[in-house]
Amino acid sequence: MVPPIVQTSLFTFSSYGEMEATYRGEKVRPTYTRGLNPTVRHFEEMLARLEGGEDALGFASGMAAISSTVLSFVEPGDRIVCVRHCYPDAYRLFGTLLKRYRIEVTYVDGLDEDAVAKALPGAKLFYMESPTNWVMEAHDARALARRHGVTSLIDNSWASPIFQQPLALGVDLVVHSASKYLGGHSDVVAGSKAHIQKIKSVAYPYLGGKLSPFDAWLLIRRLRTLPMRMKAHEAAALSIARRLAAHDAVETVCHPGLGNQLPPGLSGTSGLFSFIFKEGVDVPAFTNALSLFQLGVSWGGHESLIVPGAPIF
Ligand SMILES: Cc1ncc(COP(=O)(O)O)c(C=O)c1O
């Protein structure tokens, strides 16, 4: 019932002939965990199925998956189109490392389909995230992914495959911060075999941020309870968001479930949302007075967390 944790960095060959056949690609078997490990593979196949993709790759962290994917598709002189309010470290990756390699990024309002359509021609990659960080803008992923020959990628950490399946909406690749709802300390990217092979050809030999067998094993366990956990996150967060929205001290609550309608393709809401106080509220005193919520970054676990801050752009 439970796959073993194959905790090894390498796999020996039974003979010279087997080694040769493996290197020639005639035999597919693990040789080195950074490239292929049975426990990690089990998780990758589960995730590919959950997202309705042909294949998936597990990474050691969110930024390993995001940077490996982006670097597999762009070259110096290329341009990326990215929705505004994406995860801040992705934004910093674009503004620092990628800038060094003359890769330009155009930011667009993901709620404005015409602006997205205008920005896409000539771009190499369309980087989406929906709902977005901090302000929780929920986009119509199907409308935005209507191609223009640009490979599209979406960060689906917030909705999880339970509430949004972007590959069925026409997006090419899905990235998850698996330390959120999927539940480990890792990241994963899913998509077509061809796209995944392209990422693997860069990520395996050159970048190497592979998911570990133990983390893959933890993720396999956690995936089994994902549908029930998502429903609990949805109910708890919505009840708090509604109470905050009705509170005199609160200016705005940014939660996609409080609007009239979710965009087509998003069938539920999860546990992360933000709210803005009216002028004059003592935020440090409010934060320190909380007893159930602890101060801490990240989200998606069993704990209740709060972090004061503002969107970076
Ligand atoms: C939406 C989103 N994407 C990606 C990441 C990066 O994931 P990781 O922290 O696993 O590197 C995070 C982390 O908070 C995130 O919130």
Strand order of the main beta sheet, please?
1-7-6-5-4-2-3
The topology string of helices and strands comes to HHEHEHHEHEHEHEEHHHEEHEE
CATH superfamily of the largest domain: Type I PLP-dependent aspartate aminotransferase-like (Major domain)
What CATH architecture of the largest domain do you see? 3-Layer(aba) Sandwich
Radius of gyration: 21 Å
Helix content: 25-40%
Number of E strands: 11
| Fold-level CATH name of the largest domain | Aspartate Aminotransferase, domain 2
Q: CATH class of the largest domain, please?
A: Alpha Beta
Structural class: alpha/beta
Sequence-ordered SSE layout with sheet pairings:
Layout: H1 16-23, H2 38-51, E1 55-59, H3 62-73, E2 79-83, H4 88-95, H5 97-100, E3 104-108, H6 113-119, E4 125-129, H7 141-144, E5 151-155, H8 160-163, E6 173-177, E7 187-191, H9 193-207, H10 213-223, H11 226-245, E8 250-254, E9 274-277, H12 283-289, E10 294-295, E11 305-306
Parallel strand pairs: 2-3, 2-4, 4-5, 5-6, 10-11
Antiparallel strand pairs: 1-7, 6-7, 8-9
